[in-house]
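DM from R.C. (forwarded with permission)

"hey, sorry to bug you on a friday — could you get me a structure for this? deadline for the figure draft is monday and I only need the backbone to look sensible"
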Amino acid sequence: MTAFPAHFLWGAASAAYQVEGGHDADGKGPSIWDVYAHLPGTTHEGTNGDLAADHYHRFKEDVALMAEQGLTSYRFSIAWTRLFPAGRGAINPAGVAFYHALIDELLRYNIKPMITLYHWDLPQALQDIGGWESRETVDAFADYAELCYREFGAKTELWATFNETVVFTGMGYITGAHPPGVCSPARALQACHHVFVAHARAVQCFRELKRQGRVRADAVIGFVNVLQPHAPASDKPEDIAARELADGCFTHWFYDPVLRGEYPATLLQWAREALGAPVFAPGDAELLKANICDFIGVNYYKRELVAANPDVDNTRINTSGEKGSGQEFGFRGLFKFVRNPDGEYTDWDWEIYPRGLTEGILQLKERYGNVPVYITENGLGAKDPIIDGEVVDDARIDYLARHLEAAADAIAAGADVRGYYPWSFTDLLSWLNGYQKQYGFVYIDRGNHLARQRKKSFFWYQEVIRSHGASLQWG
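My reply, with the result:
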């Protein structure tokens, strides 16, 4: 017996900048990460995605491994600058051909592609005119999305517009740790609003081309958000209020526009009074309302305990992988995240709390109805041990098994969960953390010509897929 529905998809995930390499191959233009990661002091030991896992040149080898493992779906992102090197204007035929070849290779093995249009790698040419603060970028994204639909829409059923807006706007425009390195909440809100407008424009175009028969009739489009449930650090009224504010800022602000077509009214009023943003253009509200998602993708790694915050003003996070080196993260006068004294934590100080996946999905169900859910990322970032030549990632097996049990609990409680995509298929570049933070089922041996090696977890997940989730334990 299995808790997972018959058509449940067993996948894995990646993102273009983190795996492809080929940063300037065959006419590709520079993204903001191609530029930012080369600036001194921005990433762990100066690591960058110039080569990454070289998936651009080795995708057939990687897809063959996916097929061996038994994947029924693969989530990946398209590098905008492979198709439009300058973000708009002239199309790069070689980039279009690469993604056709990747999609065709997946389909040859009956692996469904799930395409993410934007996973943080904005064309540098668009950043130079204001990036997400500019309406021109919204227009350029709409054109880019339309090209993707016209090229790949007959082959691809599952689409998502954006990945983790809370991260790329929060770290790009509030903490300044990601490009463009800005520290301005007001600018963050305006950039975020333009992302939601771009999403709505892309959904509108998708449905029009679907009506015309340019996109397959069974195709659906969604949005991928962080799923980070919160709990009050105590039963004190001030901690409960802080938790509610954190829910508003980290969850409702990012889910409401794509599932309800509007912002949380109280938060929107507060933001406009306090920061003067976001500013709407005529028609924005109507556009959002008319173009809500078909599904929601959720990326779950951790929950946070939330407390009132009279003192902490810190937005730095642990990027060293030294457990316990992180500090309390918080915005003075609003809320802070505090450590669970009884909690289990990764080397990057993320709490391992599988029950949070169940709780988070059911909270979404309560607020938005039974919208279809794909678990588009879930995984353990760790420094995997190699013993007698084998990558013995038992901790990853335990982590994923416990989270699959949590997903099964959400399904049993009535949630419409349709797929599971562990992060990630291969080891990859972890943005600020470099290559030391490993997530994959497949080890990339950076000292041996990027040789691929199946980890212990590879064979565990192979059996999970073969049994359709009936066998989650190993050994």
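R.C.: lifesaver. The CA atoms of residues 380 and 439 lie 6 Å apart.
me: no worries. The chain has a mean pLDDT of 96.
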